[in-house]
Amino acid sequence: MIVREKDNPELFTRVQEQNLLRQYDLLTNCIELALLRGPEAFDKYTLWALNLTAVANITQFGGRYRKEPIYVGSHLPPHFNEVDNWMDRFISTIQENWYVWTPTELAAYGLWRLNWIHPFIEGNGRTARAACYYLLCARSGALLHGRKIVPERIRENRGGYESALIAADRAWEDGHLDFIEMEYFLAELLQAQLEDEGLSYEGSSSI
Fold first, then answer.
1. Can you list the pairs that 79-87 forms with residues at least 24 positions away whose Cβ atoms lie under 8 Å?
2. CA–CA dist 138, 147 (Å, integer)
3. Catalytic annotation present for 79
4. 79, 118, 145, 176: the active-site residue
5. pLDDT tens across the length of the chain (207 residues)
6. How many H-runs (helices) and E-runs (strands) does the chain carry?
7. Which of 35, 78, 99, 108 is a good FRET partner for 71, with 20 to 30 A between their CA atoms?
8. C-alpha torsion sign, points 120, 183, 139, 20
């Protein structure tokens, strides 16, 4: 059973918020596993689980790759028949560069590339932000402290976020893998998180 926003906006919003809290709990478990297992812990099953949790009770297609076209503003994601291949390549790139790229480089690539592929029907942004934080923490070797975590800061800075996505998209269209603007963007947000009195995450619609 699902709730649609147009039918019951208040309940829809409440379900979304509760889903995000559950997704954060799941995310911390995933990070703990990654700290033990390293790069091989980052796989499609982790992403499926994070997506399913984020969209539970608001869509019937959570936790699986899309099988239909999707449009995101001026960006046209890959055809749905290509999603599996693109996601395999995405995960391989993360694993192969785990010890090559810095935490912010790895997270920046993950955040941009998941948005570029847009593999799910619903909850792509929430899943990409969760994956981004997973990569930041796992590659840094710890669940990072701070009262307001990076995913929430991304949501509060949509302008910088969208600008960095567009810059990486344009570089890719020109035949280059360049997500440095996204890396700088995340580095600033992470620094702000770590300087936020060192307090633990308090819970909100942050992912």
1. 83/117, 83/119, 86/117, 86/119, 87/44, 87/47, 87/117, 87/119
2. 19
3. no
4. 118
5. 777 867 788 898 899 899 999 999 999 999 999 999 999 999 999 999 999 999 999 988 899 999 999 988 888 999 999 999 999 999 999 999 999 999 999 999 999 999 999 999 999 999 999 999 999 999 999 999 888 999 999 999 999 999 999 999 999 999 999 999 999 999 999 999 999 865 554 444 445
6. 8, 0
7. 108
8. negative
Count of CA atoms in the C-beta half-sphere (13 A) of 163: 11
Block residue for tokens 């099953």: 45
Which domains are present in the chain? 9-194 (1.10.3290.10)
Q: What is the pTM of this model?
A: 0.91
